[in-house]
Specification:
This is DUF218 domain-containing protein. It holds the Pfam family DUF218. Keywords: Membrane, Transmembrane, Transmembrane helix. With 354 residues, the chain is α/β, with parallel strands linked by helices. It has a domain of 150 residues: Rossmann fold, CATH 3.40.50. It is built from eleven helices and five strands, in the order H-H-H-H-H-E-H-E-H-E-H-E-H-E-H-H. The chain has a five-stranded parallel sheet with strand order 3-2-1-4-5. It is globular, with a radius of gyration of 24 Å. The two termini are 46 Å apart.
């Protein structure tokens, strides 16, 4: 290994270790913050640089094996990205078939898949047009696509952070289980909501083996088209599974995840109940709930997820991704304005030079 490559290897290794230490310290303090995902990605980048620069140490065979593995991973990634639009369209049609033509999740997934299918053709058409407005649109699409893609990668990294540091790992012995509601059907608990309640019951049963009896908070208000509040149906479900009424607190005013968390913790404070709390929701909803709880400075609230049907997951995760984007609205508006100004300026300057 040459001296220059050796210096690069040592530098990359040092940055890898430093990034991992920063990730460990930050995630141990609060794994709900998106900065943990950013640190994970930084550590992954420097680890990759370390492996690339270290490959000459293992001779030609080692370099060949490394290049083959890297090539396979790259081809798999490109194939997955190429198939993603088609898979989204198929999944959207499956959701619409199972849940009806008015399913917002199904329509969202279908629209996203169609948009991604059309995107290459639209961008290619813009790139071939030498008018300044076409160049501006092409640059704008490139900038915004890069930003949204980067944010998506951060979200995916946050799922890994949650798996390593969050959920039950963070709150092994909760004093309170806050079950977040979702829309009942004809006043009854549908499968999606039942999975959340069953997950809470599972955690409660695990705690019972240690002689602990956590309280339940069922949180969810009444929609304009619903015969009763979500929380009432949820409490009835728990009671039918053997949970005594004195262990159930009904919070029946919330209309959003933010209100679920704020109103539930307020009720608990009013009753003098504290300690570590575990919010129970669907698996696709965990990251957004984690981020929101951190934003609200609810230091004792962490999140665990219930199983989500496979066909429902892509659209649900896409909706959550959009939801987290809205939590950073000022930042995203600022980035959008910057992208527009930069795209127009670059296109105008290019047209003037041409």
């Amino acid at each position: 290994m040459s001296d220059g490559l050796w210096v690069l290897f040592v530098t990359a290794a040092v940055f890898t270790v430093a990034s991992l230490i920063a990730l460990w310290v930050t995630a141990r303090r609060d794994p709900r913050r998106l900065r943990c995902a950013v640190l994970l990605l930084i550590a992954a980048f420097w680890l990759l640089v370390t492996l690339v620069t270290a490959s000459p140490m293992f001779g030609e065979r080692g370099q060949t094996i490394f290049l083959v593995i890297a090539g396979v991973l790259l081809v798999a990634w490109l194939a997955a990205m190429g198939m993603l639009p088609l898979l989204l369209v198929i999944d959207g049609l499956i959701v619409l078939r199972r849940e009806g033509i008015r399913s917002r999740t199904g329509l969202l997934v279908l629209a996203a898949g169609i948009a991604l299918l059309l995107l290459p053709g639209v961008t290619a058409s813009l790139a071939r047009n030498d008018r300044w407005w076409s160049m501006a649109l092409f640059t704008l699409v490139t900038f915004i696509g890069t930003y949204l893609g980067t944010f998506l990668v951060v979200m995916l990294a946050q799922f890994v952070v949650r798996a390593l540091f969050g959920g039950r790992r963070r709150v092994p012995d909760p004093d309170v289980l806050i079950v977040l509601g979702s829309g009942p059907i004809n006043g009854k608990v549908p499968p999606l909501l039942a999975s959340r309640l069953d997950r809470a019951l599972q955690v409660s049963a695990e705690e019972a083996l240690q002689g602990r009896r956590p309280m339940f908070v069922v949180s969810g208000g009444r929609g304009s088209d619903e015969p009763r509040a979500e929380a009432e149906a949820m409490a009835e479900y728990l009671t039918s599974r053997g949970v005594p009424d004195e262990r159930i607190i009904v919070e029946d005013r919330s209309r959003s995840t933010r209100e679920n968390l704020v109103n539930s913790t307020r009720l608990l404070r009013e009753r003098g109940i504290g300690g570590p709390m575990l919010a129970v929701t669907s698996s696709y909803h965990t990251t957004r709930t984690d981020v929101l709880a951190a934003d609200l400075r609810l230091d004792d609230v962490f999140v665990t997820g219930a199983h989500t049907a496979w066909y429902y997951a892509p659209g649900a995760y896409l909706r959550e991704y959009i939801g987290v984007l809205t939590y950073r609205l000022p930042l995203n508006i600022g980035v959008g304005i910057f992208c527009v100004v930069a795209a127009v300026a670059m296109a105008w300057a290019t047209s003037r030079v041409g």
